[in-house]
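Chain particulars:
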Amino acid sequence: MNHSKHWLRVGMVALAVSSFALMGCEESTGSENKAPEIVSITASSTSISQGAETILIAVVTDADGDAIEYRWSAPKGTFSSTSNDTVTWTSPEVEEIVTIELEVNDGINLTKSTIDIGVDVYVPAVQPYYLGAEACSGCHSTTYAAWQETNHADAASAILESDHGAEYCFECHTTGYDADLANGGFDDNPVSDLHNVQCENCHGPASAHVAGNGDVTEITLSVSEDVCADCHVSTRNNNWSDWEAHNHNVGHTIYEGSYYSGCGARCHTGSGYIEEVSGAAVSDTTFISINCITCHNPHDATNEHQIRLYPSGVTAPNGDTVTKGGLGNLCLGCHTGRRDAADIEDQVANGSSHFGPHHGNQGAFLYPDVFFVDVVGSGFVWSSSQHLLMEDSCVTCHMEGHDGVNQYGSPNTSEHAFEPSVEACESCHGVLTDFDDIMAKNDFDGDGAVEGVQSEVNGLMDSLLGALVATGLDTVGVSGDDAFDVVLTAVGFPDDSTSVWSAVLSGGLATRTVRESGFNLATVLYDHSHGVHNAAFTIQLLQQSYRHVAGIDVPNGHVLSSGDK
C-alpha cells in the first residue's frame, strides 16, 4: 500500500514550539530574581530519519539581564554541544519519538522545556497521542503477551494483506484511526506498530499515561459496552445491536433501584461479575450492564472466544462444584436460583415477599438443587439433565442464531440475542418447527393425550396450581395479571405487618404443605423453559408436589417415578 501522502504530511509539519514547565527555584538574598523564560524551542525538522541531524534553536529571555547557562539532554542520540542556544542533534538508530529537554539557569533559578523529535515516526500535533502496544509491554508484559494470542492482535491482516480490504475498514482494524485529529493514529502514521486492535483502541491514546509514569487518570479504564460499540454495531458485525435488545442490557437497573438495592452486584452489574469470576471481592457500585466485556476478556484468549470462566468450576447453591457445561459455565454462574437449603427452609416456614427461587434459575434444572426436596421421602432419585453433558450446554442452544433480521434490519446471525433455537435441537431430536414438537414419552398430565413436553408440563403446572387453590388458599385482595402470580403471592405471603404485600392480603400464612409445593411450582415457573431444560426432573417435581399437597397422584397421569428419565 502506498502511504506517501502521509509522509508528505510529515514533511510539512510546522516547526514545533514546546510547552513550558517552570520548576521551583530558590529566592535570592536582597531583591527577588525572576526566572529566565524559554520563549520557544524550534527544530529545523521535527521528523527525521535514523542517523540524521536536526538543528535546535532556543530563544530565551531573562528580565534581570542575568547570564544564561544552557544544558541540552536527551535519552538517546548525540549533540554537537549541550551548552549553547543553538545545537545540532543527531538521531539514534531507532524508530521512536525522542523527547529532548532544555534546561536554562541564571545562577539562581531554573526553567525547563521540551520538544519531541520523530525518528522515522510521525510527530503528532495533538496531545495525547498514540504510541502502539509496544509502549505498553514494558509495564504490562503479562497482559501484553496474553493479548498477542487474541484475534484483535491480528485484526489488520485481513485488510492489509488481501485484495478485499478498503479504506473504511481501517477504523476498526487499526489503532487510533481518527480523521478528525492529528494525534498519531494510523490515518496520520500508517506504520506497522499501529496495525491491529491494540491496547489504545480501548484505553485511548497513551502518551500522557506513559509520560506520567503510569498515571491512571491519563488513560481510559472502562468496562462499558460503549468500548465495543463503535466497531461491533454495523451491518457486518451486529453482536452489539443484538445484545442491546436483550435483558442483559437492562439487568443492572434492577440492582441500581432503591427497592432492589440488596440484590447481588455479582450478577446484576458487569464489573461485579468480572470481580466475582476473578476471585476478587465484589465491590461494584457503577451499575454497568451485563455486556460484551462482562463475558469476554479482551486481554486473554485462554478460553475459546475469550470467554471468562470460573477457574475451578461453578459453585452451586448447595455447595457442589459444577465442572461440566463447557462455555455454558459462564451462564451458570448467575443462573442458579441462588437459594441454599437454609434459605428454602426459611421461606417455607416464614414466607417471603420474594417467594421461590431467585428468578433466572435455569441452572437449577441442569444440576437440580434449588427446590423443596422433601415433597418425597429420602432416597428418591431426581433426574439429572443430559443437556449439562452437551459440549457447551447453554451456549450450544442459545447461541445457534436465527434466520431473519434484528431490530436494526441487519441479519440476526451473531447469536447475541441469546434466543433459544430449534435448529440447535435437531441433531438429537430431528427437524422441528417448535420446541413443543419434542414429544413426551407418555401422558403425564392425565388429559388423555401424549403431547409435546412443553404441553405436558403446562398441564401439570395447571394441575398443581389448582391443587394449591383447592386447599382453601386465601387470595382475597391479591392483585396480578396472571393466575400463577396471584397464587404464588398468596402462597408466599409472610405474616409480617412490614411486608410490601400486607396492604393487599388477608388471612395470614398459607399452610406449610402449601408453601412446600408452592415453592416447587415457582421453581418451574421461573425457569421459563416449560420442561425443555430438564423434562424428566420437571415432570417429577410437578407430579410429586401435586401428590404432596393433594394427597393423590395426578388423575389419570403416568407417574414418572424415582430414577426414571
Remarks:
- The first strand starts at residue 20 and ends at 22.
- The mean pLDDT is 85.
- The chain is about 30% helix and 10% strand.
